[in-house]
Amino acid sequence: MWKKFLYKNEKNEGKAALDNLDKALLPVHVAVIMDGNGRWAKKRGLPRTAGHKKGVDALREIVKAASAIDIKYLTVYAFSTENWKRPITEVDFLMKLFSYYLDSEIEEMNKNNVRLKVVGYVEKLSENLQKQVHNAEDRTVENTGLTLNVAVNYGGRDEIVMAVRKIAQMAAVGKVDASAVDEQMVDNNLYTAYQPPVDLLIRTGGDMRISNFLLWQCAYAELWFTEKNWPDFQPDDFAAAVQSYQTRDRRFGGLSK
Ligand code: IPE
Ligand code: IPE
Ligand code: MG
């Protein structure tokens, strides 16, 4: 039994599957491409925005579940650097939803010992939203359980460019030598600085692509895809992904143990 097991919904779904996982073989860092909100809504004759709203409910349950089974890092893709291409009304709605999320979820995060971090080029967001981001991060900074990275205006290529820029700036003023640039230094200058690499990458919505998510951090991630749209994704699906992860032979270029 999980000592800190708190997860429960009315039907008690997900509990069994989460309980059955091998505690010794948990992924440390799980990343999720929360895709399919629009298709979820379309299937039901609803506006795309309804799918995004329902997606927040799904996220709440997955954060609870991940934290209950002692996952240390969970990174979720909420808005990509490419998502600005969408109609302004949808972009506005997503920003408002993010703002609402930052206000409404912090109490629950504190209850579950979750530390929130926003990863991405935050400076492009509105001043108000930036303030909210920093405030939400500050309010959860003492929490020592799950670190929840919410990726907003996040792009994997952008992240690497930003890291290169920071290192180049340090080199320009003589703070680092070009020959000292190594993988660790690049890693330490990413939005996810000082966090471990992704062990398991989940994508919902049926598409099998990375869409510019955590390109560096996923170098050796195990991939898991589902046809389910994000608003339908539940803790038992999360458990299924982790269960699959636990059967993988991770060789990292070497040979099986
Ligand atoms: C994922 O759902 C959420 C965001 C990208 C913000 P989509 O909005 O991409 O939903 P589909 O893929 O169109 O169904
Ligand atoms: C990826 O989904 C981004 C997020 C889930 C936030 P997209 O819907 O933007 O990805 P593509 O366009 O299908 O690659
Ligand atoms: Mg999509």
What does this structure look like?
The protein has 257 residues and is an alpha/beta fold. The chain has a single domain, classed as 3-Layer(aba) Sandwich (Undecaprenyl pyrophosphate synthetase), CATH 3.40.1180.10. It contains 9 helices and 6 strands, in the order αβααβααβαβααββα. It has helices spanning 15-19, 37-43, 48-68, 88-104, 106-111, 127-140, 156-172, 183-188, 235-245, and strands spanning 29-33, 73-80, 115-119, 147-154, 200-203, 222-225. A 6-stranded parallel beta sheet has the order 3-4-2-1-5-6, sandwiched between helices. α3 packs parallel to α4 and α4 (88-104) runs parallel beside α6. The longest helix has 21 residues, at 48-68. The model is unreliable at 3-10 (pLDDT under 50). One 3-methylbut-3-enyl trihydrogen diphosphate (IPE) binds at residues 34-39, 79, 83, 94, 205.
Structurally, the number of domains stands at 1
Order of helices and strands: HEHHEHHEHEHHEEH
Helix content: 40-55%
- β-sheet strand percentage: 5-15%
Chemical compounds bound to the protein: 3-methylbut-3-enyl trihydrogen diphosphate, magnesium ion
Keywords for this entry:
6-stranded parallel sheet; Undecaprenyl pyrophosphate synthetase; 257 residues; 13% strand; binds magnesium ion; binds 3-methylbut-3-enyl trihydrogen diphosphate; 6 strands; disordered N terminus; single chain; alpha/beta
Topology:
Elements: H1 15-19, E1 29-33, H2 37-43, H3 48-68, E2 73-80, H4 88-104, H5 106-111, E3 115-119, H6 127-140, E4 147-154, H7 156-172, H8 183-188, E5 200-203, E6 222-225, H9 235-245
Parallel strand pairs: 1-2, 1-5, 2-4, 3-4, 5-6
Bound molecules: 3-methylbut-3-enyl trihydrogen diphosphate (2 copies) and magnesium ion (MG).
